[in-house]
């Protein structure tokens, strides 16, 4: 697919996004850590507590944490499109998403399934026996846990990669239309902010939770694709930072109060409705406010942050399974809830760091978990990329429903 060589594009790196990418994944780690101990909310492994205060802490970041990742992803895709063209997105970028997803669903995600099935008393077997059944056993073994890409083989927390690959294909397919729209409507203003708010309020009425999640994600990805590399957008954020932050704080307080009233069963359906409205407004207002704050805080490049960006992808791939696995082992010890949280956090971070070191010193392992090989590496060769495409083709076809 050829690019129009008569058009010249200038893509300037946005320094704040380097910081935000690291911060977003760190938030994701601690959010998933909290999900193990927070009351009521469903997760793959739970420890019983009465830490309702933790729900309110997690609700501060809950509306916008994934929106931030989608915005960053959209900005990155635009930069790749401008620097390398559509062929890069269809070939190398596709490989960089599907290969870690394939490794994840076969070797990383199953750990969470084992822990979940064990806690729910669906199985009573060691991990080795579970993996034998996972790869070679009868489907009846996973009765009640069969929602997946291939029966019990599911994406779990890697749904982001599945959706990212689908969205990337859509961006390539509608490239010319999106390019025209970006050129005509690429100036961000209050009108755009209102349009995003209305779209988010509309999305909240979608009944299917996965579809609702994907629609919001695609909207934030388009937001990054259209505006993330625009200096006009970041100047607008910087100029309007104060009212944006004030609005974000206000709407956060409103939905936090509504959530507290819901928990103590005051207000009924009316409070539930207000909570939904304020929470969904925060998905955009707070996201934009966080971006605005970043323009003030992160204006200078950092070598440490630049290095950390190389490990964001691998960390995302295995962090949740590490958390669930470590928490499951810690649960067998006689510890208080606070001690369990601290030990789980420390040991999980240690395991993750070891995994990141392995991906750093082994280019092959790094490739499996989404770390880009050096351009001089044999892993960057065309032959290797063709091999990855062939290996991941069935997964890609399955994701889009072609098989």
Could you describe the 3D structure shown?
The chain is built from 18 helices and no strands. The chain has helices at residues 15-37, 52-61, 65-84, 86-108, 110-119, 127-136, 159-173, 175-185, 190-203, 209-227, 231-239, 241-263, 268-297, 303-309, 312-330, 337-361, 363-368, 382-399. The radius of gyration is 22 Å and the shape is globular. The two termini are 25 Å apart.
**How do the SSEs run, as a string of H and E?**
HHHHHHHHHHHHHHHHHH
List the total number of helices. Answer: 18
Most strands sheet = none
Strand content: under 5%
Which short descriptors sum up this protein?
403 residues, mainly alpha, 18 helices
Provide a compact summary of the structure.
The chain is mainly alpha-helical. The chain has helices at 15-37, 52-61, 65-84, 86-108, 110-119, 127-136, 159-173, 175-185, 190-203, 209-227, 231-239, 241-263, 268-297, 303-309, 312-330, 337-361, 363-368, 382-399. The protein is globular.
Tell me the layout of helices and strands.
Blueprint lengths: L14 H23 L14 H10 L3 H20 L1 H23 L1 H10 L7 H10 L22 H15 L1 H11 L4 H14 L5 H19 L3 H9 L1 H23 L4 H30 L5 H7 L2 H19 L6 H25 L1 H6 L13 H18 L4
Helix pairs in contact: 1-2, 1-3, 1-13, 1-14, 1-15, 1-16, 3-4, 3-10, 4-7, 4-15, 4-18, 5-15, 9-10, 9-13, 11-13, 12-13, 15-16
